[in-house]
Amino acid sequence: MRRDEKPGAPRVWRLVIPLKPLSRAKSRLGATAGEALRPGLALAFAQDTVSAALGCASVRGVAVVTDDPLAAEALSALGARIVPDLPADGLNAALAYGTAQVRAHAPESAVAVLNADLPALRPAELLRVLNTASAFPRAFLPDAAGIGTTLLSALPGSELRPAFGGPSRARHLASGAVEIALSDVPGARQDVDTAEDLRVALALGVGVHSAKRLSGGLGPDGGRGLVRAIPRRRREPTRSVGD
Ligand SMILES: Nc1nc2c(ncn2[C@@H]2O[C@H](COP(=O)(O)OP(=O)(O)OP(=O)(O)O)[C@@H](O)[C@H]2O)c(=O)[nH]1
Ligand SMILES: C=C(OP(=O)(O)O)C(=O)O
User: What GO molecular function annotations does the UniProt record carry, in alphabetical order (predicted)?
Assistant: First the structure.
């Protein structure tokens, strides 16, 4: 089932964002960024994702599921709550655990999980996505490639049932989640896995953390051309909201 924008009742959301240890994160960008820069770039993407999420008017709190101490320090400084990845059993286990932790703390929460690699995400587009998700027990936003998923949501009383990894759009659709078909939320759909993804995200305009990381240029192979012109980006004002 696909749904265009048809907002449900406004809700307050709690977000869960998973992040691998930085030493292993964004491995597909290794050749482009260079191994020395890749972990810092993964952290910068997560910082921009968390900042945009905390800047969204309908978001009450952001929990990041990670075992990485450096990322935990940087992201909690932005206002995120850190949940250790206790299951240590991959992405979907981390998401189920993070969601359970959030709901243990706030049982009646509407919860959405969001990838940590959305450096061009803007608070206003996240607001539109969450307003649309408010109308359905479970909903998801496909990634820009139309193969994966960048956000999956569950209203109070619904289990999240995350099925991320590879072609997760088809799995989330088959699981009964409603596909959100908004055409103009490009930053919310543009996860960055490859050099081409990074090129597109830069054209959309990335957040300040990623722009700063990229301003010195990238590693050995072709990355240099990516950052010739980082567009100036008008940022919505951010709120710093703890959980
Ligand atoms: N906490 C936690 N987060 C994970 C785990 N696996 C993946 N993630 C996060 O889930 C999101 C999507 O992950 P992937 O695309 O598999 O990994 P990635 O680091 O983004 O990119 P690649 O290394 O190139 O696959 C990213 O935010 C990851 O950091 C895990 O086992 N635990
Ligand atoms: C984990 C996912 O993202 P990626 O494209 O980063 O593998 C996914 O889309 O389910």
Answer: phospholactate guanylyltransferase activity
